[in-house]
Amino acid sequence: MELQNKATSLWPNFFNVTMVQIRTFHMTWFAFFACFFAWFGIAPLMAVVRDELHLTKSQVGWAIIGSVSMTIFARLFIGWLVDRIGPRKSYTWLLILGSLPVMGIGLAHDFTTFLIFRILIGGIGASFVITQYHTSVMFASNVVGQANATSAGWGNLGGGVTQFVMPLLFSVFVVGFGFSEALGWRLSMVVVGVIIFLIGIGYYFLTQDAPDGNYDDLRARGMMPEKKTVTGAYWTAMADYRVWMLFVIYGACFGIELTINNVAALYFADYFNLSLVAAGLVAASFGLMNIFARTLGGLFGDNFGSLWGLRGRSFWLFMCLLFEGIALMIFSQMQVLFLALPSLIVFSLFTQMAEGATYSVVPFINKKALGAVAGVVGAGGNAGAVLAGFLFKGAMDWHEAFLILGMVVTAASFLAFFVRFSTRQEDEERAAFAIANIQTLRKRADKANAELEHALNAIETRKVAVASA
Q: Does any domain span residue 8?
């Protein structure tokens, strides 16, 4: 059953938070931003952690793998849960419970305890699934790609911001307050955990599950399928080969981004001899592209969809992945900073556009199990990051590791041609797209008419005033 009253536009009403769709959009991207920030908050401080806990290169590699491995299972579970209890309750509990290991990592005293907390923190990476789900149920097909891409992109921005904010916060505790470095990085993570906890409370009170209300109310009014149907729909989605094609594809874009977020600061510190803060700033340039790059991926996905239907969205996805793989191979061969930095930015552009393009396709795979599809595809991103992480834990030179990843991404791009849709679904979505566009134009016309009527009334009032004078 299709949810009603979805928003048919994003940008004209972008600051109108009285609209539940827009208010939810802003809350969900901000919550994901905070989760992403906390998820990778320790990454730019790893040089300090490595020295204090005496971690070997292999142990650092296991920490990288651990940070994304837990998220695979968390995303699979949250995809089922969000279909069942709704995004509002799911996000609230995830934020509140996820804040505990973020603060708790400050108790780590050796590699084992550090790895355990690093794995547990990875659970908040499931926030991505809820973010994509929540924007998908709030926005119509003509704008859902843009809404999904922007909410996820601005959320992913947390991975770039954390690269320079966490070293600065660490410096405040060490230089400003005179704490030791060992205590400084621990207190920095505690601050982040407290913020996550507070956002969880805010999410519960400031959002709702769907445009017309929360899932409990909608089910009581017969406007949604019962909870008992969720599990069956979940397994139906799991049996769809297209879901697994997108699983691999998302591993080749978001999985790469996760890997870069984990290794970039160390890579530039070790291979280009940069300081902790300088390496963090350079690494941040990769994540900061999320300000607009992922939005472009979703925007062009919607545009390709308007011109060539659902197959147009798949073709755009292929193009993004292909150029991502080529750009990554070029970046891997850069030996000097002034060449490495621009090639990193170009590579980042296509990586994040590919992510936006992926989730401009996801909402159309199975609308009855949207959470399941979003969860499985999202888990693919983390599975890709886990596999990529093994390249960085051994003796392999990191230049070679990036080259291999670029080749894999290029090969994975061709899987986009296997994400196909039936003629019936193509026709249905074209009709839905057209209806959404008509609704948008009608709303704009109504607004223009209201403004014109107001202007005419003002003129008449002035005429009467002049005549009276």
A: no
Burial 316-344 (b: 16+ CB within 10 A, else e): bbbbbbbbbbbbbbbbbebeeeeebbebb
One domain for residues 316 and 444: no
CB atoms within 10 A of CB 380: 26
DSSP 2: P
Q: Are residues 191 and 259 in the same domain?
A: yes
Assigned domain for 7 exists: no
Q: What is the pLDDT of residues 299-335, one digit of tens each?
A: 999 999 988 999 999 999 999 999 999 999 999 999 9
385, 462: one domain: no
Instruction: Please indicate whether residue 119 or residue 3 has the higher confidence score (pLDDT).
Output: 119
Q: Does 417 share its domain with 452?
A: no
Residue whose tokens read 């070679």: 400
| Nearest-5° Cα angle at 228, 361 to 202 | 65
Quote the tokens at residue 345: 């930015």
436 and 417 within one domain: no
* Pair 279, 347 in one domain: yes
60 CB burial (10 A radius; 0-12, 13-18, 19+) = buried
Digit-coded pLDDT (tens) for 80-131: 999 999 999 999 999 999 999 999 998 999 999 999 999 999 999 999 999 9
Which of the given ranges, 179-188, 267-276, 383-392, has the highest pLDDT on average?
Answer: 179-188
The domain in which residue 178 lies consists of: 20-421
Task: With H, G, I as helix, E, B as strand and everything else as coil, classify residue 344.
Answer: helix
Please state the domain count of the chain. Answer: 2
Q: Are residues 257 and 355 in the same domain?
A: yes
Residues near 302 by beta carbon (within 8 Å), at least 6 away in sequence: 142, 143, 144, 145, 146, 360
Q: What is the mean pLDDT of residues 445-464?
A: 82
Global pTM reads: 0.82
Shared-domain flag, residues 100 and 239:
yes
